[in-house]
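Hi V.,

Quick status before I head out on leave. The structure for the redesign project is tokenized and pasted below; the design run finished overnight.
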């Protein structure tokens, strides 16, 4: 009775996208010697058990001197493959359940998962859900064996945030970033890097970091430090800011009042409209003046006790031009 034997068998470990080394099937006699006189038997792969295509398995191999050589096999799906080898005539016993494990090729794609993209959030508040990425090879196989380090960084955003990054290691081809917190309000996109191979992802979807609740007010434009009695001051502006010093551009309701004190703490009146309502977190004061000369302290406060006012700003108000002389 003639039987089939792999000689040599295919390597049980293969890589996606890489052509397998040739392997041979020999026809053996009952005594175990090669049936060298056989040049007519045709062998073929049958009963392939795989999700993907096993390229090269569709062709029959004609035996030469009792040996059939299979070549050009290639698989692109990382999975376990099993198959049989039979003779086309169906006379010889088959070689059953030849098993091959195909592993992913080199890392090629680092991608954000759509349902785990970064979302709009408040300044200082972590993302509500993990930002998840996965690592794939050229054929979209998950890199399940990799524990490589992934760096998530700010690709687009306020200048003060462009050096921020977070690092985590892959597990089962995925990496979750759960502690991503940005303190500077603005428009952002993130990007991820496979650190060891300098492989970059495509940018994440755009998202916003919104200023938090008002915490304090501060000058964005200071008045000139020297003013003249009864003359309009140079304009000055104040912003409503959160604890991270972002202008609270959604604040259209805070009422801000500019005030003057002398060095004893006594209030000095302004001439002009010194109380205004914020618009997009900003108040501009114009056309203010005072009839009091001397070294004064300017400060701006709100009607809300939860919002801290500005620090005192020293202003030197010079006397006006003399218009009369008194003789005693």
């Amino acid at each position: 009775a003639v039987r089939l034997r792999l000689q040599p068998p295919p390597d049980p470990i293969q890589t996606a996208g890489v052509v397998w080394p040739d392997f041979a099937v020999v026809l053996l006699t009952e005594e175990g010697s090669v049936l060298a006189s056989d040049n007519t038997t045709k062998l073929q792969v049958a009963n392939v058990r795989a999700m993907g295509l096993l390229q090269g398995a569709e062709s029959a191999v004609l035996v030469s001197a009792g040996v059939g050589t299979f070549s050009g096999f290639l698989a692109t799906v990382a999975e376990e493959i099993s198959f049989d080898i039979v003779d086309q005539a169906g006379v010889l016993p088959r070689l059953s359940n030849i098993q091959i494990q195909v592993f992913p090729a080199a890392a090629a794609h680092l991608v954000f998962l759509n349902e785990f993209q970064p979302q709009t959030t408040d300044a200082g508040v972590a993302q509500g859900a993990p930002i998840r990425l996965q690592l794939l090879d050229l054929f979209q196989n998950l890199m399940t064996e990799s524990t490589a380090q992934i760096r998530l960084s700010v690709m687009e955003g306020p200048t003060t945030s462009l050096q921020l990054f977070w690092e985590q290691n892959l597990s089962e081809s995925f990496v979750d970033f759960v502690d991503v917190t940005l303190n500077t309000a603005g428009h952002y996109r993130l990007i991820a890097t496979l650190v060891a191979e300098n492989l970059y992802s495509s940018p994440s979807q755009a998202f916003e970091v919104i200023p938090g609740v008002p915490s304090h007010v501060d000058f964005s434009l200071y008045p000139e430090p020297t003013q003249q009695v009864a003359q309009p001051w140079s304009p000055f502006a104040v912003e409503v800011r959160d604890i991270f010093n972002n202008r609270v551009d959604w604040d259209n309701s805070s009422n801000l009042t500019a005030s003057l004190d002398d060095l004893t703490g006594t209030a000095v009146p302004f001439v002009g409209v010194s109380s205004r309502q914020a618009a997009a977190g900003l108040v501009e004061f114009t056309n203010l003046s005072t009839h009091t000369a001397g070294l004064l302290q300017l400060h701006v406060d709100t009607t809300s006790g939860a919002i801290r006012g500005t620090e005192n700003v020293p202003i030197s108000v010079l006397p006006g031009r003399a218009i009369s002389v008194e003789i005693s």
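Above is the designed sequence. The mean pLDDT is 94.

G. will cover questions while I'm gone.

Best,
W.
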